[in-house]
Amino acid sequence: LKADSEFHRDRLVLVLNTPGGSAETSEKMANILRSNYQEIYFLVPDSAMSAGTILCMSGDRIYMDYSSSLGPIDPQVYNGKNWVPALGYLDKVESLINKDAGTLTDAEYVFLRNIDLAELRSYEMARDLTVALLKDWLVTYKFKDWNIHSSTGLPVSLAEKQERAEDIANKLSNNSIWHSHGRAIGIHTLTSVLKLKIEDYSHNVDLRNKIREYNDLICEHIIRIGASAFIHSRIFF
Fold it and tell me: How far apart are CA 55 and CA 44, in angstroms?
């Protein structure tokens, strides 16, 4: 059968606006997308937090403007009642464990005594998964065309790509840097602190306005229909 050009294309531009979710879902989505497209560009008109940031790292390019933001990769895990940031939970447990026994309050002592070790381990595994995904995806996709150091003109080795990816993953998952699961990380921080290449369309006023109008339209529609998630494409609304 002849391929339908509406479906079979080599490149996908995905406009992403999300408060986050689970790392496992991001991995599943990335695997599906990568099975169908050779190139994937993520466009973030507003924010792609937590698992959204993880998903963006599976792309070949990330497009943002001055008001766009990514977030710390603190995976959300379900504790039976609510979705909670895994790193925040682990950091709190570690801080209590490191306190002198005589300084623990009764409430803190009860909290530590009632910790479910299997649940704690699941949080650790969720943290390790996010770092592993970023290290793999950045080297495989985001850094695939990074062959020459812009500062020296020397070739970029695989080991250097892996080192840069690990540094980015570790910094994005470090709560002591961001202090908040909802911290908005903008272009300047992404490029200067994390040394991550971002395609900045801030100065393309016409493009920026069109993207903003599209994003606002979709967000207003989501609010109006009360949807928790919404997908729009050329052939579906």
Answer: 11
Q: Which two tokens stand for residue 46?
A: 């507003």
Query: Which pTM value belongs to this model?
Result: 0.84
> What would the DSSP string read from start to end of 126-184?
HHHHHHHHHHHHIIIIITTT--B-TTT-PBPPHHHHHHHHHHHHHHHT-HHHH-STT--
Q: What is the mean pLDDT of each run of 10 residues along the chain (237 residues)?
A: 63 93 89 94 95 94 97 77 74 79 78 78 82 94 91 91 94 84 91 94 96 94 90 80
Token pair of 113, please? Answer: 């005594």
The dihedrals phi and psi of 44, each to the nearest 5 degrees, come to -115, 95
Q: CB of 13 within 8 A of CB of 43?
A: yes
| b/e per residue 211-220 (b: at least 16 CB within 10 A) | beeebeebee
Tell me how far apart the alpha carbons of residues 82 and 77 are, in angstroms, rounded to a whole number.
8
Exposed/middle/buried for residue 159 (C-beta within 10 Å: 0-12, 13-18, 19+): exposed
Question: In terms of Cα–Cα distance, which of 61, 35, 30 is closest to 196?
Answer: 61
Residues 6+ apart with CB under 8 A from 38: 10, 11
